[in-house]
UniProtKB/TrEMBL annotation:
Lineage: Bacteria, Pseudomonadati, Pseudomonadota, Alphaproteobacteria, Hyphomicrobiales
Record keyword Nucleotide-binding present: yes
Recorded GO MF terms: ATP binding; phosphoribosylaminoimidazolesuccinocarboxamide synthase activity
Domain SAICAR synthetase/ADE2 N-terminal, residue spans: 7-235
PANTHER family associated with the record: MULTIFUNCTIONAL PROTEIN ADE2, SI:DKEY-6E2.2
Protein name per Swiss-Prot or TrEMBL: Phosphoribosylaminoimidazole-succinocarboxamide synthase
Gene3D superfamilies per the UniProt record, alphabetical: ATP-grasp fold, B domain, Phosphorylase Kinase, domain 1
Pathway(s) of this molecule: Purine metabolism; IMP biosynthesis via de novo pathway; 5-amino-1-(5-phospho-D-ribosyl)imidazole-4-carboxamide from 5-amino-1-(5-phospho-D-ribosyl)imidazole-4-carboxylate: step 1/2
Length: 254
């Protein structure tokens, strides 16, 4: 057997060449990073949980007609995806004040925002992913005005779906980050959701206890990251509680 060709290794995932042209295999690592890699740790079991949580969310989005790159999960750590041309933006949707918005505007963390706010950062590690406006995006040609419209409506649809999904299991969706790409099908091109949606790129607060169930546990040295991610998976019905209680590592429902 030949070794698969490694296309890209990032901080949290590895992309391998897929079995057919136009496909990739996305492998979820256990690495956790924050502050653009300034802080790094390996957290046993994180990749397995993110693979499952992201699979769950992307499958539901596909089912709702929201286009994504996701095809199917292959195993505990890998999923088959459609290769896209990534648009070099991080698209952040905020419902409640937290993180960099709190610092920038001096807001009280947890303040409900007057409406959902979309922000864009230019994906460039060397520049620390600076925040940019729609003007920069269209002027520098990172996306066309039409693409930007599609990206914003996609982001809003994802926010509406995710807010309801998490609300239903007692979790507040504070904010999240997505990536999108261009998918070419014949002579057609459309914008689809790419990368992952997991507690690594969402802020998720328990509605009753206000506990953080996301990567802020790592950023803020709160500990218990895998337990928090497992809690999210359990509430979404991805992990069965009784089964999970018997094991130390994540036990997955087949
Ligand atoms: N369907 C896709 N086709 C092509 N590339 C993709 C697709 N989905 C995600 N990617 C890219 O794969 C990489 C995933 O790796 P990872 O999330 O570990 O990267 P990272 O360290 O966060 O770095 P960065 O996101 O800045 O490139 C990202 O660069 C992401 O943009
Ligand atoms: Mg990433």
């Amino acid at each position: 057997m030949n070794r698969r060709r490694r296309i890209y290794e990032g901080k949290a995932k590895i992309l391998f060449e897929g079995p057919e042209p136009g496909t990739l295999v996305q492998y979820f690592k256990d690495d956790a990073t924050a502050g653009n890699g300034a802080k790094h740790d390996v957290i046993d079991g994180k990749g397995v949980l993110n693979n499952r949580i992201s699979e769950f969310i992307f499958s539901k989005l596909n089912g709702l007609g929201i286009p994504t790159h996701f095809i199917r999960r292959i195993n505990m750590r890998e999923q088959l995806i459609k290769e896209v041309e990534i648009i070099p933006l991080e698209i952040i949707v905020r419902n409640v004040a937290a993180g960099s918005l709190v610092k920038r505007l001096g807001l009280e963390p947890g303040t409900q925002l007057p409406r959902s706010i979309i922000e864009f950062c230019y994906k460039d590690d060397a520049l620390n992913d600076p925040m940019v406006s729609e003007e920069h995006i269209t002027a520098f040609g990172w996306a066309t005005p039409q693409e930007l419209d599609d990206i914003m409506s996609l982001a809003i649809r994802v926010n509406d779906f995710l807010s309801g999904l998490f609300m239903g299991v007692g979790i507040q969706l504070v904010d999240f980050k997505i990536e999108v790409g261009r998918l070419y099908e014949g002579d057609m091109m459309r914008i689809v959701l790419a990368d992952e949606i997991s507690p690594d790129n969402c802020r998720l607060w328990d509605i009753k206890t206000r506990n953080k169930l996301d990567k802020d546990r790592f950023r803020e040295d709160l500990g218990g990251l895998v337990d928090a991610y497992r809690e999210v998976a359990q509430r979404l019905g991805i992990l069965v509680e009784a089964e999970n209680a018997l094991t130390t590592g994540p036990r997955l429902v087949q």
